[in-house]
Amino acid sequence: MSIDPRLSRALSGRYRVERELGAGGMATVYLAQDERHARSVAIKVLHPEVAASVGAERFLAEIRTTAKLSHPNVLPLFDSGTEDGFFYFVMPLVIGESLRARLERERVIEMGEALRIAMEVADALAYAHANGVVHRDIKPENILLSGGPRIGATISGETRVAHAFVADFGIARAGSTGGSERLTGAGLTLGTPAYMSPEQAAADPHVDGRSDQYSLACVLFEMLVGEPPFSGPSVEAILVRRFTRPPPRASDRREGIPRHIDGAILTAMARDPNERFASMERFIAALSAPARERVATAGADASVAVLPFTNMSADADNEYFGDGMAEEITNALAQVPGLRVAARTSAFAFKGKTHDLRAIGDKLNVAAVLEGSVRRAGNRIRITAQLIDVSDGLHLWSERFDREMTDIFAIQDEIATAIASRLAAALRGGSAGSLVRPSTSNLDAYELYLRARSLVKQRGVALLSAVDLLERAVALDPAFAPALAQLAHALILSSFWGLTPPDRMTARAQWAANAALEHDPGLVTAHTASALVATCIQFDPDAATAAWNRALAIDPWDPDARVMRAAFDLCYARGAFDEAVAEVRLVIERDPLSAIAHTQLSVIMSFAGRYDEALREAQRARELDATSFFAVWSEVNASAYGGAAATIVDVIPTYLTRYGRHPWLMMALAAAHDVLGFTDRAEAVYLELKARSQLEYVQPAVLAATAESAGRIDEAMVWLRRAVEVRDAVLSAYAIHSPPFRKLRTVPGFWETVGSLTPSAPAVRASWRLRTVGGQASSHDVTKST
Description:
Elements: H1 5-11, E1 15-23, E2 27-34, E3 39-46, H2 48-54, H3 56-67, E4 79-83, E5 86-92, E6 96-98, H4 99-106, H5 111-130, E7 133-134, E8 143-146, H6 151-155, E9 163-166, E10 173-174, H7 198-201, H8 209-225, H9 235-244, H10 259-268, H11 280-288, H12 293-296, E11 303-306, E12 310-311, H13 319-333, E13 340-341, H14 344-348, H15 357-364, E14 368-377, E15 380-389, E16 395-404, H16 408-422, H17 443-456, H18 462-476, H19 481-496, H20 506-519, H21 524-536, H22 541-554, H23 559-573, H24 577-590, H25 595-607, H26 611-624, H27 629-641, H28 645-648, H29 652-658, H30 663-675, H31 679-692, H32 700-709, H33 713-726, H34 731-734, H35 750-755, H36 761-769, H37 779-783
Parallel strand pairs: 11-13, 11-14, 12-14
Antiparallel strand pairs: 1-2, 2-3, 3-5, 4-5, 6-8, 7-10, 8-9, 14-15, 15-16
Helix pairs in contact: 5-8, 5-11, 5-15, 8-10, 10-11, 13-16, 13-17, 17-18, 17-19, 18-19, 19-20, 19-21, 20-21, 21-22, 21-23, 22-23, 23-24, 23-25, 24-25, 25-26, 25-27, 26-27, 27-30, 30-31, 30-32, 31-32, 32-33
C-alpha cells in the first residue's frame, strides 16, 4: 500500500517513512528511519476519524502519561506529536513477532512458556497500575515477542528466548486522574470483545486494573487451550455469552493444567471485579506459587523432579557420574505408586543452568525438586542431596552421604528411599522398600556404562567412543544387561549414521541384543534393542513391531521406547505419519523439554511433507540441546527439502567444518542446491562424496540420494543397488518414504530393487501408484505416499 505523501512531508527531516507494517481499528503502523539517531523505528499513526474525535490536547495528555512508564516489559515511547492533522507516536522496532502471530502458527503454547509470557505481561501491568495507568486493550496483538526464534538466527547457531513487551499504552487512559478529558470521553470504544472485561463492555466509567487482569487471564487461557474462553459469530454473541455464562475452566478444554493455574485463571475471569484478585501482584503470586499441599497431600499430586547432580570433583570427567546418579534415582522413584516423577530429559534440560526453583517447578509441573552434588576423591565419595519445595524454597529433607565407592548402589537406594518416605502421603501408607536394583556388581563396568550412555545421546562420532566403552564394560561383566542393550543400540546407530559398514556391526549387535534379553527379559531397552535389530539388520517390520509392543507392555510411558517406535515403526517402516506425530506429541506433553523427542518429531514431519512444522520442531530441539548433531541435521533436513533451501546453503558449510563434512550434511546440501536449480553445485557435492568413497566408507544410500540431487539418476540406481547389497541400515528408514529418495521412487526398477530388501515395499508401491498422475508422481505425492 502506498504511503500518504502528506504523512511523509509532515515527518520530513525527522523520520523517513518506508512502508506500512500493519493496521488496526484505531491506527496504522509504519516502518521508518529515525534520521537523527540513524535507527529503525515503528511509527503508529491514528486514523483520521479517531484523531478528529480525540483532539490534539487529549491525545498529547495521554501520551505524556504513557511516556512516564519505564519498565523492561513495556514498549517504550521515543517520540510523539501532531503534525498536519496526523497524530503519531514513535516506538522501538521490535524484531520478532506478536503473540497473535505465534498463536496463529502454533495454536497452543507450551505451558511453561505461556506462563512466562503471562508473568512478564503481568509484571508490566502491575507497574503501570501502580503509576495510575490502565491499558484497557490487552490482547495477543498488543503483546510483542522480541528475540524469539527466527529461521536465520536459529540456523546460524543462535538460540533465543522470546521476551514479552506490552504495546499500545499510547491509547490507555489514566486510571486514577478522574475527569472527562480522556480518550474514552471522545466516544471511542477501547478494547477487543474476546478479551474485554464485562465492566469495560458495559462502559463502566470506573474501570481499574482488574479489567486488565481479566483480559490477561483470557490471553493466558488462549495460550494454554488454543482458543479464547468466549467466542462467537459476532461481537454481540461474544458479549452475551460473557454476561450470561460463567467463565469456563481451562482444564475442561485441555487436560494436564495444574489446579493452581486453572484456579488462578478462573478467579481472574470472574464476572464481578470484586471477586477477582485484588491486584495484579496477587494474580502473579497465584500463578507462580502452587499450594504447599502439593507436596504433602495424598495421591497423584505428589510429584518430584530429580536434577542432574553437580560435579564438585577436581576431575571434570566425573560429571557423568553425577548424571548417572540422578538418572538412577529418577528410575527408582518412578517405581513408587502414586508418586509422579518428571521425565529425565526434561529435568536434565536444566543441567549447567541457573534457574529459580519456582520456575523449574512451573516448567516441569512438580511440587518438589531434588538437587545434589557429587565430590569424589580417590575411592571416597561424598554425595549431598536436598529435597526442596518449589513454592517457597523450603528444604523438606537434606542429607550428606560419605561412602566408599563400593557402596554406590546402596547410596542410590538410600537417597531414593529417603525421598519417597518424605513424600509418605504419595505412597498411600506403604513402605518404599528397596528401590534400586543393581544391574552389575562391578563398579568399573558401571562407570564405563554411565560414560557411554551420555555419549550415545549425542549421536554423531561420539557413538564410536560409546561402542568402545560399552565393549569394555561388557568384557568386565558379561551379564550386565543394560550395557549389553546399550551396546546393541550404539552399534546399530553407528551404522545407521554411516560411521561403520554394516558387516562390521551386524553379528555383534545381534549378539548383544539377544544377551541383554537373556539376562533381563524385563528390561525395556533390551526389547528396543531387539526392535532395532529387526528393523535395521533383518529388515523385518513385523518382528520389529512385536518387539516395540513388548517393550511398551513393560512400561507404556517409557519415553525413549515410544519415540523410537513412532519414528522407526510408524513413520519409517509404515508411513503412518499422523499416528507417529500423535505418539511423539504425547511424549512431549509429559516430557516437554526432551530434545530428542522434538528432533524425532521434526524428522517425522519432514517425511510427511509438513516442512514448516518440521523446522519449528528442529529449532526447538536445538534450543533445548545445542550440542546435538541429530537436532542440527533435522533442521538442515527440513530446510533443504522444504522452503528454506536458499537460507540453508549458506549455513551448511559452517556445519561441515564443525562436524567433519559429515555425508548426511553433504546430502542435504546437494538437495538444497537441487531445489534452487543449481544442479552443477549439487554435482560438485556428489563428486566429493564419490571421491571420498574410494578412501573411506561412505554409505551407498547417501551416495544414491546425492547422485539423485545431482541429476545422475543412473548412478543413483547403481548406488541404490549397492546399498541393498551391503544391507545399508539407513534403507530401513529412508528407502520408501523419505524426502531424499522422492525422485528415485519414480525411476523404473526402484521398487524391485528395494523390494528385495524391504518386505513392505510392494504394499507401499501399490498405495503410491494410486497417488500418481498420468504415471508420474509429484514430489508432494511421493513424500506422502501412504
